[in-house]
Write a structure and sequence with these properties.
Blueprint (H helix, E strand, L loop, with lengths): L1 H5 L4 H26 L4 H25 L4 H25 L9 H30 L1 H20 L13 H14 L3 H6 L1 H4 L7 H7 L10
């Protein structure tokens, strides 16, 4: 909505903004997936939340100062896309460290239910907030939600197993080579978390930036 309502972006410019936001998923998912597998997921999720808050803060600040421009929106969306790649791959990988193996089905069901609820409720709530305070200032609500998410993650005290030490670049190279050696669907499915990240649950910020939130691939 910032692009359309505040900056009066053309359809071509809006399409370019969507492309810029999705580009990190296309380019970085494989390497980030391997990298996340070698890091502590909780730290990645906290860092992603804080990073989202800091990056999005540029928009309301620029609006208040009268310097909001389309190039800034391109930059913010690209950085947000990079952070989304990290968070969306790390979140499902972190879940098995929080619950027992026999609780994984219920845990994944709850995770997907919360995402679906956010997808349904997010655009409506964002629209009401935009109508009340304008699109750029409505992003402050998203910033606060990211900070709250990071704080809640920081309060988790369950220890996380130490990550493996293999090189992420080596792992990603193996992931790219595996389907060519094994053409079976199972070989492709084993790499799905790397190249097909799960749908984003952060629909509030998308609704403030877009007239309609973009969809994601489902692994």
């Amino acid at each position: 909505m910032v692009a359309v309502i505040t900056l009066r972006a053309t359809p071509v410019e809006v399409g370019a903004l969507r492309t810029v936001e999705f580009l990190p998923f296309l380019v970085l998912s494989l390497v980030v997936g391997a990298w996340v597998d070698r890091q502590r997921r909780r730290s990645i999720l906290i860092g992603s939340d804080v990073g989202h808050a800091l990056v999005l803060l540029a928009l309301p600040v620029a609006f208040v100062l009268g310097h909001l421009a389309l190039w800034l929106l391109y930059l913010v969306l690209f950085l947000v896309g990079i952070l989304d790649v990290c968070a969306e791959i790390a979140a499902p990988a972190y879940l098995p460290t929080l619950i027992e193996r026999d609780q994984l089905v219920a845990g994944n069901t709850a995770l997907q239910t919360s995402r679906s609820a956010a997808q349904v409720a997010g655009p409506g709530l964002a629209g009401a907030l935009v109508a009340a305070v304008s699109a750029p200032l409505a992003i402050v609500g998203d910033i606060l939600s990211y900070l709250a998410s990071g704080l809640l993650l920081a309060l988790i005290r369950r220890p996380e197993p130490p990550p493996a030490s293999s090189s992420a670049w080596a792992i990603s190279a193996c992931s790219r080579a595996r389907p060519s050696r094994d053409p079976s669907p199972r070989a492709w499915g084993s790499d799905a978390p790397c190249w097909a990240p799960s749908p984003s649950w952060r629909w509030g910020s998308r609704s403030c930036l877009w007239p309609r939130a973009p969809s994601r691939c489902q692994p």
